[in-house]
Amino acid sequence: MERELCERAPVGAAALREDAGSRAPLAGIRAAAELGLRRGEFARAVQLGLVRQGPRAAGGAARFTRAELERVKAERGFPEALRARVETVAGADHGARVLGTVPTRFTRLARCGHLSPVGYRVNRYRALVWLYLAAELREFAARRPALLSGAAPPEDRELLAAGADLRPGRWRERHVSLLLRRTADPWERAAVLASVLPEGEVLAAVPDPAERIVLAALAPPPPYGHPQVPAAAAVAGPLLLAGPPEEVGRYRAGLDLALTGARGQSNSTGERGPT
């Protein structure tokens, strides 16, 4: 009997290890495969908060729990409904077809801030191509059909006459908002806001070099699809920083508020950085 128990023990230990492994968080590539999504679809789902990240690995890489993947799979219409929510269209020609208008009208609507990009890429001609959620374009067409034809509203004509292009600011607003939704920690929130501010604004808001080191360490990486090739990165790089004074002022005010909470947290714990 004792021998039989000893012979069974390794099998039981192996089963326990296998069971623990099956519950271990998955890397992004494995998680995408589990959900049957392409890499871009999965990245967009994570960006939009449709698939929530779990605790990061020791090296900082994103991980996804089995429970989260099962939650996503259990949603109605999976996976077709999820794919529809993350479907993107690139550029004015494709966007105009989805919207049911002409490319020039689509570009005008986007430049005047009626349509918010969800991402971007740089094509082989080093031109910036904006990406839009197809579902949002269809919703806009149903909600604002009058804007798809006819004369432009007076406020749009004023913006166009001034050479305005609100697409970069609209993209940054969405990008920052999505990042802030992922965390309640004031240091991490401060790092998100600092990441879109010019260096001079960060220096003025954060005179303490040690605090700036913390914010730099917590800064979010460039968004999915941001080019790595230097020539293309030079085209997309300016998108990562706020430009117009009112936009800079808005993010600076948000940073000041986040820092107040972060410093208060540090005073209570005796440590800088997220707790």
TrEMBL record:
Any Pfam family: DUF6397
Family matches, as InterPro entries: DUF6397
Protein name according to UniProt: DUF6397 family protein
Species per Swiss-Prot/TrEMBL record: Streptomyces polychromogenes
